[in-house]
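# nightly structure sweep
# worker-07 picked up a monomer target from the shared queue
# config: single-sequence mode, recycle default, output format = structure tokens
# input follows
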Amino acid sequence: MPRYEDLPYRLCVGTMVLNRAGRVFIGRRFAGPEHVDINHPWQMPQGGVDSGEEPYPAALRELAEETNIVSVELLAEAPEWFTYDLPSDVVPHAWGGRYRGQKQKWYALRFIGPESEIDVAHPAGGHEPEFSEWRWVPMRQLPDLIIPFKRDVYERVVATFAHLV
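# output follows
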């Protein structure tokens, strides 16, 4: 395996989905190699960008694949990409040891559909569920709910989109 410092970042997108009341969608992740802290299992929908795919369509695809949410309006795009590093002992177990962390483009979306559209147990396209449950939370609470090595990114996402609530 290459040295940790030489590994690239995995290209990824994330969505901050806001309901009409200004609360943010979060899901409780099932266990996975990058989720090593059982006290912080929550996160916003996010996932990898496929080869040749543009970030915004990737964000909409990932959102549908994880939550079944498709009824959204674009509110804002983060002006920059945010990165985080995985703990070095997690790298060999996540994404086949090919990445040191993720480079993420974030989008804020307004959910305009009925809550019955949200279905984390049976997401779009027959994808395996990634969340065991979901809820709406105030934006300011997000950094405290996320796994510590992603917290800086969440603080930056909150600062970027705070004007939307």
